[in-house]
Known about the structure:
mainly beta; 4-stranded antiparallel beta sheet; 11 strands; about 50% strand; globular
Amino acid sequence: QVQLVESGGGLVQAGGSLRLSCAASGRTFSTYSMGWFRQRPGLQREFVASITWSAESTYYADSVKGRFTISRDNPKNTVYLQMNSLKPEDTAVYYCAATRGSVLSTVSSGYDYWGQGTQVTVSS
Length: 124
C-alpha cells in the first residue's frame, strides 16, 4: 500500500509559479512510477506529467510542456511538480498517483494509488 498526500497548491496570478509536492508513505516508493493529473471545473481528470521510478524518463501533456517539470527525490519519498508561467486555464485540482513498474501511463486507469488532491487557482 502507498498513501499519497499532495501539498503546495494555492492562489497565484497568471505568469506566476507554484511547486506541488506529493509525499508518499511506504518503503517501496522508489519502485513506483509517479504521475500528476488534474481536474478542471466541469471537465474530466486529465494527465499532466509522469516520471519513472528511476527518474530516467518523463512525459508531459502538450498543454504543459515547457512550463511544468516533474521530478522526484526517492530518499525523501516525494515527487514534485514545478509549474511556471501559469495560466488561468491551469486552474484545477491536482492529484498525484502511483503505479508499480516503469511504464509512463497517461491514463487514470494506469495508476493504482491516488492522493486527495490540492487546489491550484490562477487568476487573470
